[in-house]
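note to self: dont lose this again. the chain is below, predicted strucutre after it. 342 aa total, dont forget to put it in the shared folder this time
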Amino acid sequence: MDAILLQILNGLDKGGAYALIALGLTITFGTLGVVNFAHGALFMLGAFCAVSVKALLSLEQVTEDATQLTAWGTPLEVRVPYVESWFGDFGTVLLDYSVPVSILVAIPVMLLIGVVMERGLIRFFYKRPHADQILVTFGLAIVLQEIVKGAFGANPIPQPAPDVAKGMIDFGVAVGMDAGNVVYPMWRLVYFLFSVAVIAGVFAFLQFTTFGMVVRAGMADRETVGLLGIDVDRRFTIVFGIAAMVAGLAGLMYTPILSPDYHMGMDFLVLSFVVVVVGGMGSLPGAVAAGFLLGILQSFASMNEVKSILPGIDQIIIYLIAVIILLVRPRGLMGRKGVMEH
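---
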């Protein structure tokens, strides 16, 4: 029982990442009809927002302390981050919480990147075949990867979680098991709760606001909404920006779990497209449900007991489940009737 609970917990954070990326992909496909292969690059750019903010906060002021000498008899250099010299203890807290603080920077930055992408490139491919969309967005993703590689290097850059979230939580005690049987990293729980909050926020925005109502109507029948005098294009531009922001925040908060590097977006993108197809093309609830389901299944497949019976199953489990579901239900778990069925 403790092994089952642990694997479910292990699958939640990765499932949260899959769900957030798939949610953005589904919004983009459902509203604009665009297959965006640059979406994984947005996940990566969000992660590097955290790297940039950490680097900025870590800039140091160098002074010489004449009362302390080095082995060569010269004054000792004292390095203090500017935020600590300017703000004291608050500066220390900013450094410690650099990843959550990065959210304040990432939200406007990722919104702007999404709007620029949509206005500058994506809108010219709305009526083009999906193959053209895939080629141009995949090319854009490679360009963004190389820009990040040139700016930050090819090696992963560790991003520590805040000290308060570096510990472990003993879930075994909470459910009546022996202490130490089921321990779980605290930041992974933070990430899961964060992903749930973002998903809930996106659904609430689309469900309970006038803007969201128009977007949902546009997803169902864009032409009719346009005939009502509503500027659908402007609203869909904002939706693309929101999708970019969701992907960026997913990558930003994942940095303490997986040190960011320039190709991390591609690693998640392919799996997230599988999640979208399994959940149902254009289905937001399907994308979220499939994200968490496949994350948990992948976690179970990574158990040594399972791999000893089926070697390599952890590498193919998501694709295997996708094949089975699409053979039985071509439109996916929650896809609209007729989508992917002709």
